[in-house]
Write a structure and sequence with these properties.
This protein folds into 4 domains: about 160 residues, Endonuclease Chain A (Endonuclease, Chain A, 2-Layer Sandwich); about 120 residues, Endonuclease, Chain A, CATH 3.30.870.10; about 70 residues, Signal transduction histidine kinase, dimerisation/phosphotransfer (DHp) domain (Helix Hairpins, Orthogonal Bundle); about 160 residues, Heat Shock Protein 90. It is about 45% helix and about 20% strand. The chain contains 18 helices and 22 strands. The protein is elongated, with a radius of gyration of 38 Å. It is α+β, with helices and mostly antiparallel strands and about 550 residues long. It has an 8-stranded mixed beta sheet with strand order 1-7-6-5-2-3-4-8, with helices on both faces. A hairpin with a 3-residue loop joins strand 5 and strand 6.
């Protein structure tokens, strides 16, 4: 008989051809949808009996078993057929008879699995099947079928799952790259609560993106699922990394590995060896794949992922801390060097001169200003150390907040006079008694004023205090410092009160961090915003008013 390969147009004609072959075949292999099975299995029952009893043959069927297909599956099983379940998205339709003929669909799901199946005539001209008697084609089809069969679920396990709602345990070894590719897509679609993805090299992130996995995970994360990815980052995957950075997916840099793993909802895991690291397609890159839902195995791999994740988080924090430490050392060195140099120059100048000390008032004031600057930098550094070591204490006393404000303004008097176009105004004269650390509150006001003067070359800095009443009868004083300067830069705004947050050439970025911690230690809060008119910014902080002082006043 001459070997040939032809195309059969329409499922009806393909079924007629299949029925004719089954009349004399010994070993039949079917991979069809559950809908197709339910609609066409009846005529094959007698043939099945004859194949087994008269020709010592066999019939294997791969299908997607759902509740509506259970009766057909049970009837076929009772007649002697071996039936297994596979997810419809992984089902590759084909029929093979012995080594004589193979039929497989060109148009895959879902074309013939939904409404079209209700009327066979509707599929004519749409559903194309290849029929071949060529030995190489048949063997290729058989190889693919056997791979699907080995990884399919036994019908009794699937029926038990459908009837009880409990999924049977499975442990599959997959060697077919295309099947592994389809499986990882299916897993991604199934994610409900959590997806943990460990990728072996930077190219694997690109492959995952090309496969549609990244877009689906981003979509899933927007619905509230937790998505974590560990992957080596490089120029190779920079575009995908940028896409992920705009989403809620968490991504950490990782080390290169010989395998990748994927844990979904703490119920299933997928582990793939890396066969071709630089392959463009996932199906070409993946080697041996293990897929399982065994609880002990899933829990074990999830623990491994969490250990890797925590390690990477720690590494990132150490990198960040190291970077911040280097920046701090560089900035602090600059800040210390800046006032030291003029002090040394002025001292040398004074030592070379003769006369009355009053003649050198301007030079002495320069030494004083720079010495104060040195003192402020040193104290800020020491205060941060105290805060982070937990040894930052408060010495509280009862005082008028406005008196402290005026004392700070008096201390800055000479510096303010040097800026002709800048005015500092205290708009409130009312007393506001608070029980707090007087020195620390003065430090907060001084830091805020220093900050405002740095960014306001002309205009005004208006300072005010107001009483804020609360429902619980606990009132607070609200301090406000509003300037007409350049405002808060958008880049610095989110981290304004963090350590080393600075957008100026001067300062080490500790002043506002200290302000936040001092105010917080007093039970108050601090915040800032740009002014609505676009000119300058306003800084606020609150302190609880002392109840006895408030009562006396009232």
């Amino acid at each position: 008989m001459q070997e040939s390969t032809i195309v059969i147009k329409g499922r009806k004609k393909a079924l007629q051809e299949a029925y004719r072959r089954s009349l004399t075949s010994i070993h039949d292999y079917y991979c069809i949808t559950g809908d197709e099975l339910t609609k066409s299995y009846k005529p094959f029952i007698p043939l099945l009996h004859a194949r087994i009893s008269q020709r010592a043959g066999s019939t294997q069927i791969i299908t997607n078993i759902e509740k509506e297909t259970i009766p057909a599956v049970k009837e076929l099983t009772e007649a002697g057929a071996q039936v297994k379940h596979i997810d419809i998205s992984s089902l590759r339709r084909c029929v093979i008879y012995d080594d004589d003929a193979a039929y497989f669909s060109i148009v895959e799901e879902p074309l013939i699995t939904h409404t079209a199946i209700d009327n066979v005539d509707q599929t004519e001209g749409e559903d194309l099947w290849v029929a071949s008697t060529e030995y190489s084609v048949i063997q290729s089809a058989k190889k693919r079928y056997i791979s699907d069969w080995e990884n399919a679920i036994r019908s009794k396990d699937r029926i038990h799952q459908l009837e009880t709602g409990i999924e049977p345990e499975f442990y599959k070894v997959i060697t077919d790259g295309e099947m592994a590719s389809q499986l990882i897509r299916d897993l991604t679609i199934s994610v409900k609560m959590e997806a943990l993805l460990f990728l072996p090299n930077s190219k694997s992130l690109v492959r995952s993106d090309n496969l549609g996995i990244i877009d689906k995970l981003i979509e899933t994360s927007q619905k509230g699922a937790t998505v974590k990815i560990i992957c080596p980052l490089s120029e190779q995957n920079v575009n995908t990394v940028e896409k992920i950075s705009r989403s809620q997916v968490q991504l950490l840099d990782g080390d290169t590995s010989n395998y990748g793993m994927y844990i979904v909802d703490g119920e299933k895991f997928f582990r793939a060896e890396l066969k071709e690291p630089m392959a463009d397609k996932f199906s070409e890159a993946a080697g041996l794949v293990i897929y399982s839902n065994r609880k002990t195995t899933v829990d074990s791999f999830k623990s491994v992922f969490e250990l890797l994740w925590n390690e990477r988080v720690l590494v990132e924090e150490l990198k960040k801390a190291d970077k911040m430490q280097k920046e701090f050392i560089n900035i602090t060195a600059h800040e210390l060097r800046t006032p030291i140099q003029p002090i040394l120059v002025v001292i040398d100048t004074l030592l070379s001169k003769k006369g009355n000390i009053e003649d050198y008032e301007e030079l002495l004031n320069m030494i004083r200003r720079n010495a104060k600057r040195l003192q402020r930098v040193t104290e800020n550094v020491l205060d941060v150390t105290r805060i982070e070591s937990g040894s930052f204490g408060l010495k509280k006393e009862l005082f008028d907040l406005n008196e402290v404000i005026m004392a700070v303004l008096a201390a800055y008097g000479s510096d303010v006079k040097k800026v002709d176009q800048l005015k500092i105004i205290l708009t409130s004269k009312e007393s506001f008694y608070v029980e707090a650390d007087k020195v620390r509150i003065a430090q907060v006001i001084s830091n805020l004023l220093n900050n405002a003067m740095k960014f306001t070359q002309e205009g005004t800095i208006a300072i005010s205090c107001n009483k804020m009443e609360h429902d619980n009868d606990k009132h607070s004083a609200t301090f406000c410092m509003k300037d007409t300067g350049v405002g808060i830069h958008p880049e610095i705004y989110p981290k304004l009160f963090s350590k080393f947050a600075s957008h100026s050439d001067g300062g080490i970025g500790l002043g506002l961090y200290l302000c936040k911690n001092i105010v917080k230690a007093h039970g108050g809060r601090i915040w800032a915003k740009n002014n609505p008119d676009g000119k300058g910014s306003a800084f606020f902080f609150t302190l609880p008013l002392h109840h006895s002082a408030r009562d006396v006043k009232e």
